[in-house]
Amino acid sequence: MLFSRRYAQQCIDRLEDVVSENELRQFVDALNRPGRDRIIKLWEIVVLDALSRVSPIQHEQPLSDGQRPDFAFPLLVDGQRVDVIGDIRCISDSGLDNQNPIQSLSDEVVRVARKMRVNPDKLDIRVQGKTIGQYRDAKMTLNLPAKSGIADFVRTEITPFLETVRSAPGRSASIDVQRPDAILTMAYDPDQMFFRMGHPSYDVSYSIDRNPLWSALKDKADQLRSSPSDSIRLVIVCDGDCKTLKEQSPIGGHFSTTAIVEDFLRRSSTVDAVLLLPVVEKWHIFQQSEISLVPEFYAKAGGARAVMTERNEIALRAHLNAFLANMPKPGLSASNAVNWCDKADFLTGLHGGYSMAGNTVKISSRQILETLAGIPSHSHPPLESPPDTPLPPANWQQHFLGYLQRGQMISKVTVVPGGDADDDTLEFEFGQPDPAIHSFRMPKAS
């Protein structure tokens, strides 16, 4: 999950005194069901928990029009109480992804290539797109068939090319597909190391008020409209895999995150402040990534609503800084977390994840538990192997086999707790060759 399951359970336990039993059960049921609603509810329990650890909060207290905002908490400003009423919204690019099925194309091409014994790492796909609408009020659409037609498209247009590649794997090749519903090129390079795919960005905001972020703010403004006039109205926007939350500067005619939020606040007579919680993944040397929350706060001080004074804004910023200190570190990127939300079971350890040093092996506790329970742990089959070839053992098992062949028994096992991470580590230490499973030897020289 985006945040560890262990941490999520801690949030559930702490929220017992914050939300009603029925509301808490709804959270738990949603978190236990596969689907996109998982990440929405995960954000809600984590944010509510972090807020409640700064000061007491009220959850879903009805307004005069029947709306039930997610939270309300008091601020003390110069000895006076100011109430903050707000909503949590998780936004994504799911609608745009469905309209532009680039991931479905990638998955299907890789699947068919592997089935045909063509190495997908040698493929490079470039998809064209078109801009629809007026300049700075438009959207990008990829030249691809509908999602339901991707499999048929690959079968008719891509499979013949892959057959050509299979017959001459040492030779470069390419095709150019030009159809009313699809424009792309595909190349095969035997010297290429990794699968590549390029396309115009369809999930950036070419329109300032027709994008997922603006739509979410507008929706929450409508829900908070009947909040007391002397209360501060706050919207917290969370990342359910939405690129608009992470656009730092306008490039190529599209709008940055800051431009969208500031324009919304100028035009809104309802919302006073917005806190964005994007999950940002930065890649470093050797393909190492760092995933973190990069919060952004926007306020409408000096606006049409008298409640948002400079003093109130300072107090709200301080309160939210304390809230952010309680927020956990994400364990996955938002896109990976969304993909995992659709999976039904969680009996999956870090298969292939291990480390070695001398006669010590550190490996996922969950992976060992699965193996002892009889769940096979396999590596990927070699690309050139026949379809009916048995899967090879996982790489960590090969190292255990090496210790066994050298006659080294396990001398010590230590469980290293993983804390909030959703796994522990088992540390195996191996002794010297043991005559119980090794050849006899001459006495050691004294």
Q: Approximately how much helix is present in the residues? A: 25-40%
Q: Would you list the SSEs in sequence order as H and E?
A: HHHEEHHEEEHEEEHEHEEEEHHEEHHEE
Strand content: 15-25%
Count of individual domains: 3
Straight-line distance between termini: 57 Å
Task: Give me the secondary-structure category.
Answer: alpha+beta
- For this entry, what is the oligomeric state of its chains? single chain
List the helices and strands and how they pair.
Layout: H1 5-14, H2 21-32, H3 37-52, E1 71-77, E2 80-91, H4 94-99, H5 102-115, E3 123-127, E4 129-134, E5 137-142, H6 150-167, E6 173-179, E7 182-188, E8 196-198, H7 212-224, E9 232-239, H8 257-267, E10 273-277, E11 279-283, E12 289-293, E13 296-299, H9 310-325, H10 334-341, E14 354-357, E15 360-364, H11 365-372, H12 395-405, E16 408-416, E17 425-433
Parallel strand pairs: 2-9, 3-8, 9-10
Antiparallel strand pairs: 1-2, 3-7, 4-5, 6-7, 10-13, 11-12, 14-15, 15-17, 16-17
Helix pairs in contact: 1-3, 2-3, 3-9, 5-6, 7-8
